[in-house]
Design goal:
heterodimer; A: alpha+beta; seven-stranded antiparallel beta sheet; 6 helices; extended; B: alpha+beta; five-stranded antiparallel beta sheet
């Protein structure tokens, strides 16, 4: 989902740690190293990587602007191929029939069936283009605050993993416990209390 | 700090208490809302609310209230039985502008966030300005929610919670 969309969903994160100076160069290097690869015409079924916010389908971090005002703005792209099950079944059937005819046998072992299925899926994967999903993010480096423009669990998990890999920083999702834990106004005893907290009942 | 995955499910109740408290504040304490956002004209319950009663695992109850003119009586009834607000749709107004969004208790995620209309982006040069404007508009509600949550947590972990806040919320639920 795009940050310029009419309706957006936002997951808030806190970024912990420091980036090696010069910050802009280090972040650009992390983005370049993990830029999304194209998997059309390849056997891979899914790929995850960074892409520029303004040109998500022609990623080039040598030229892309990654800072707007004082905020880093770029996107996570997840390309996935979905081969309909019925197409797999059809091609698997055709291939098994061919194999039986060639070998003059009337049965295939479990291992052969597995090997044929893998090959069929691989061949189909090269013929089916991947569907790209682009999720924008804004990262206020100074404040250690990141907004990711989706609530989708799989996309959030992909972000957390790729972000840590790319920048060697810890990305912590803000939900009730972590948002309370990082509240700067809490005292030590209040944080201890938080860790022992039991639910309140609003009825007698 | 607890393990994040464990803490997510263990502290789901905290997010739901926050939304239930927020409903109470919206109905009873406009002053607190203005204190946290001097530019706030109103914060109102929108067209959707989910109230969940987890007190009895076997007979758990989920009530979803929908519609622009939905009455909240059924939600209050579920609160009276020990339910908590799991999800809420809110309308925030400031000046002539209006924001709408849904807030989920277990994650504090914002969804379906609609901000006041901004100018149409016609050229590439206009993108930068549009992004800056959008970030500012998102910050208005995210900042408010974060300040409200910080205030709630401070109250929740302090002595006032059991002495003053819980009795006041109970009274509201009983008499509403």
């Amino acid at each position: 989902m795009g940050l310029l969309s009419t309706s957006v969903s936002i997951t808030q994160y806190r970024v912990e740690g420091q980036i090696k100076a010069p910050v802009l160069d280090t972040i650009r290097a992390g983005l370049k190293k993990h830029t999304i690869d194209e998997i059309d015409n390849e056997t891979s079924e899914q790929v995850v990587g960074w892409t520029p916010f303004e040109n998500p389908f022609t990623p080039n971090f040598d030229t892309a602007d990654i800072v707007i005002d004082t905020t880093f703005v770029f996107s996570l792209r997840i390309d996935k191929k979905s081969i309909p099950a019925k197409i797999v079944t059809k091609h698997l059937n055709l291939e098994m029939t061919r194999r039986l005819a060639e070998s003059n046998r009337d049965f295939l072992s479990r291992a052969e069936k597995k090997e044929i299925k893998e090959r069929v899926v691989n061949v189909l994967s090269t013929r089916i283009p991947a569907t790209p999903n682009v999720y924008d993010l804004t990262w206020d480096y100074e404040a250690g605050r990141l907004w990711f423009f989706t609530n989708l669990k799989s996309a959030n998990e992909a972000l957390e993993s790729l972000f840590t890999q790319s920048f060697k920083l810890s990305l912590i999702r803000l939900f009730p416990y972590t948002a309370a834990e990082f509240n700067p106004d809490l005292t030590g005893p209040e944080k201890d209390h938080l860790n022992q907290l039991k639910p309140t009942l609003f009825v007698d | 700090m607890l393990d994040v995955a464990v803490a997510y499910s263990r502290y789901q109740f905290l997010g739901e208490e926050f939304l239930s408290w927020l409903w109470f504040v919206i109905e009873n304490d406009h002053q607190l809302l203005q204190q946290l956002d001097p530019d706030l004209a109103a914060l109102e319950i929108g067209h959707r609310m989910v109230v969940v009663n987890r007190r009895h695992r076997d007979t758990g109850e989920t009530v979803t209230i929908r519609g622009d003119h939905a009455g909240m009586e059924e939600g209050l009834l579920t609160l009276k039985k020990g339910g908590m607000v799991a999800e809420i749709h809110l309308i925030y107004r400031s000046g002539d502008n209006e924001w709408q969004f849904s807030l989920k208790g277990e994650s504090l995620n914002l969804s379906s966030l609609k901000v006041p209309a901004t100018g149409r982006v016609e050229t590439e040069e206009e993108i930068e300005g549009a992004v800056i404007e959008k970030i500012y508009l998102y910050e208005r509600v995210i900042g408010l929610i974060n300040r409200l949550y910080a205030r709630f947590v401070k109250l929740r972990l302090g002595d006032e919670w059991n002495k003053l806040v819980v009795p006041a919320v109970r009274k509201w639920i009983r008499t509403a």
